[in-house]
From TrEMBL:
It comes from Astatotilapia calliptera (Eastern happy). Its main location: membrane. The gene is CLN3. Residues 252-272 are annotated as: Disordered. The chain crosses the membrane at residues 28-48, 88-108, 120-142, 148-169, 181-200, 206-226, 350-372, 378-400, 412-433. It is found in: Endomembrane system; Lysosome membrane. This is Battenin. Keywords: Lysosome, Membrane, Transmembrane, Transmembrane helix, Transport. It is a multi-pass membrane protein. Gene3D superfamilies: MFS general substrate transporter like domains. One of its GO terms (biological process) is regulation of intracellular pH. Belongs to the battenin family. One of its GO terms (cellular component) is lysosomal membrane.
């Protein structure tokens, strides 16, 4: 009996299109999605502070700046600490930003499969646009905070959705996604600073940046070459999904020279959506990936939010605020470089990166306590190294989850594993608050 033509057709043709041009389009598409997904999150804090600064001048209140202050400036210290401290640690801002994302990543993987990808992308773009509008037109503190929360919701839901989306494409798009998310930090901060330096007001700058959520929509709907199996506007048809599952596995395997570790085929697996018990089983298997990633991000953001503002050198060519801005810039540069390196270097043992990042955090903790580093250039080197470790841990974790997870579990696994970085960041914020208080009391 002759099989249907749809089954006999080449999976590369049916699922990912043909030719190098399609591969490039998908890579660029995921790069732009990564950039747009993290862009609002990166820009929102600095923008919120600038807007609130105007509100402070009107209301003559000093407490507002402390609640949403990302950067800090010389002379803000309210005590005589040798560390030139802010009254409130930047970790407080970090917690305000990460908690909505953490909540989404904890619960969304169990229900998000009921929402088709097209609707998810539109929702994320609307949330990002709303965050820009709320902060730009805010007339009260709560409006600016709400804008930051909307940016966090957009970023968190977008990350787990786009990571899940990669399973429908060649595995090489993970490199594009990782590079785009790394570029968001560097490009977002630089673009905002350049526009403000050019004389534009924060409100006008944020309104200009409404082009970013629009670019996300264009990248997804017009640039990507989506496969027929992708649940675009309605939930996945289980029978068709089972039919294309084996072809999709062949597509993923063809994009990597190494042989997959799992030998399970689609014919050996049950069809239909994963049950709750199956999802819990998959999560247990993901801890070997999630735990090292969480440790890397815990120590990384402990450095960024607990120590970085205290690594201040007196009487050099850079002010305290300028030193902090350069720390952040070099960190983002390191993240961009390492998140773009997956094509060249793959690191299977991510736990090694967590050990190295922990050692880095411990060293810088002692550097803050005993002030033995002689020059700011050494701090620059350590911060760049920190960004390289963090970015490498991110892209390699999701690369090997995609590679080693069974096809039936892959989409859920990519979404569920995204909790690792957010959980680590949250714990880092909680630890950084008392550490900041301790050092500033000295």
């Amino acid at each position: 009996m002759e099989q249907p033509a749809s089954v006999n057709s080449n999976p590369l043709q049916r699922l990912d299109g043909t030719g190098r041009c399609v591969q490039i389009r998908n890579w660029i598409g995921f790069w732009l999605l990564g950039l747009c997904n993290n862009f609002a999150y990166v820009v929102m804090l600095s923008a919120a502070h600038d807007i609130l600064e105007k509100q402070e001048s009107r209301n003559e209140t000093a407490s507002t700046s402390a609640s949403l202050h990302v950067d800090f400036q010389v002379g803000n210290s309210s005590n005589s600490s040798i560390y030139d401290c802010n009254p409130v640690s930047t970790a407080a801002v970090l917690l305000a930003d990460i908690l909505p994302t953490l909540f989404i990543k904890l619960f969304a993987p169990f229900v998000i499969h009921k929402m088709p990808y097209g609707i998810r992308v539109l929702f994320c773009a609307i949330m990002a646009a709303t965050s820009f509008l709320l902060v730009s037109f805010s007339s009260a503190v709560w409006m600016s905070i709400l804008g930051v929360i909307f940016a966090s919701i957009s970023s968190g839901l977008g990350e787990l959705s786009f990571l899940s989306l990669t399973v429908y494409f060649s595995r090489s798009v993970l490199e594009g996604w990782g590079s785009g998310t790394g570029a968001a930090g560097l490009i977002g901060a630089l673009l905002y600073s350049v526009l403000i330096q050019a004389g534009l007001s924060p409100r006008v700058t944020l309104l200009i940046m409404l082009v970013v959520p629009f670019t996300m929509v264009v990248s997804y709907f017009l640039l990507l070459v989506c496969p027929p199996s992708l649940p675009q506007w309605r939930t996945k048809d289980t029978e068709y999904a089972a039919l294309v599952s084996e072809d999709r596995q062949q597509l993923l395997d063809s994009s990597d020279e190494e042989e997959p570790e799992s030998s399970t085929t689609a014919e050996d697996q049950p069809t239909g959506p994963l049950s709750f018990r199956e999802r819990l089983f998959v999560i247990r298997g993901l801890w070997r990936f999630v735990l090292p990633l969480g440790v890397v991000y815990l120590t990384e953001y402990f450095i960024n939010q607990g120590l970085m503002e205290l690594l201040f050198f007196h009487n050099i060519f850079l002010t305290h605020a300028a030193q902090y801005r350069w720390y952040q810039t070099l960190y983002q540069l390191g993240v961009l470089l390492s998140r773009s390196s997956l094509h060249c270097v793959k690191i299977r043992k991510v736990w090694i990166l967590s050990v190295l990042q922990t050692l880095n955090a411990v060293f810088l903790l002692f550097a803050v306590r005993y002030l033995f580093l002689p020059t700011v250039w050494l701090v620059f080197a350590f911060i760049l190294y920190e960004g390289l470790l963090g970015g490498a841990a991110y892209v390699n974790t999701f690369h090997f989850i995609s590679k080693e997870t069974e096809d039936r579990h892959r989409e859920f696994s990519m979404a569920a594993a995204s909790i690792g970085d957010s959980l680590g960041i949250t714990v880092a914020g909680l630890i950084s608050l008392p550490v900041h208080t301790y050092f500033c009391s000295l």
